[in-house]
Amino acid sequence: MPEVDGLSVVRRLRKSRMPLVAFVTADDEDAVRAFELNAVDYLLKPVSRARLQETLNRARAQLELSDWRAQEADRAQAAAAEYEAATRPPQLERIPIRRHDEIVLLPVKEVASVVAVGELRRIITAHNETYTLAYRLKDLAARLDAKRFVRLSRGALANVEMLSRVGSMSGGAYLATLTTASS
User: Fold this and answer.
1) For labelling alongside 165, which of 13, 37, 60, 134 has CA 20 to 30 A away?
2) How many Å apart are CA 120 and CA 135, to the nearest integer?
3) Is residue 137 a contact partner of residue 121, using CB atoms and an 8 Å limit?
4) 179: which residues sit within 8 A by CB, 6+ positions away?
5) Predicted model pTM
6) How many CA atoms lie within 13 A of 55 on its CB side?
7) DSSP secondary structure string for all residues of 125-178
8) What does the angle CA 21 – CA 26 – CA 29 come to, to the nearest 5 degrees?
9) Where are the chain's structural domains?
10) Per-10-residue mean pLDDT for the chain, 183 residues long?
11) Where does residue 114 rank: exposed (0-12), middle (13-18), buried (19+ CB within 10 A)?
12) Torsion of CA 156, 162, 165, 171, to 10 degrees
């Protein structure tokens, strides 16, 4: 190869796209560098049929091992997802809120937004009612349907179905407008 040698070609390949490489050369001086690049083999010319077959067998074994590792990684990811789904707390259909001497069971579908105000969370409903609760926003967000609620900021959640528009403001901030009974 007149312009670039095989080692240079392999060095230029992305690791994520690296094929299995076996070097075939008349020169034995680059063998160590070839193996540093994870070469399957380094064959010296002239190559016998048996020696070439050994290299091909080694490459097949590496491919099978790679396939096995990929399958094991897929199994591990599936197990982790299954575990996460099994241990995830069930989604709330109603949020229990203490109001004076009673507990109000507020249907989640009526929640327009949840905003953190200091240590408390303020819930505003579709009917523009306001409730205060002491749940951590993070804990509440984990129990709400992620398809229905979006995190607007560190301290605010909004019901996607009640978002009527989002406009940009100066400084990279956004203003979200919700549709409620008084809107």
Assistant:
1) 134
2) 7
3) yes
4) 112, 162, 163, 164
5) 0.52
6) 17
7) ETT--EEEE-S-HHHHHHHS-TTTEEEEETTEEEEGGGEEEEEE-GGG-EEEEE
8) 80
9) 6-87, 94-178
10) 83 87 90 90 94 95 92 92 85 90 92 89 92 88 91 90 86 82 58
11) buried
12) 0
* Type of residue at 9: V
Query: Whats the size of the chain, residue-wise?
Result: 183
Under CATH, which number does the domain 6-87 receive? 3.40.50.2300
Q: Which residue has the tokens 């020696």?
A: 51
Three-class secondary structure of residue 179 per DSSP:
coil
Residue the block writes with tokens 């919700």: 178
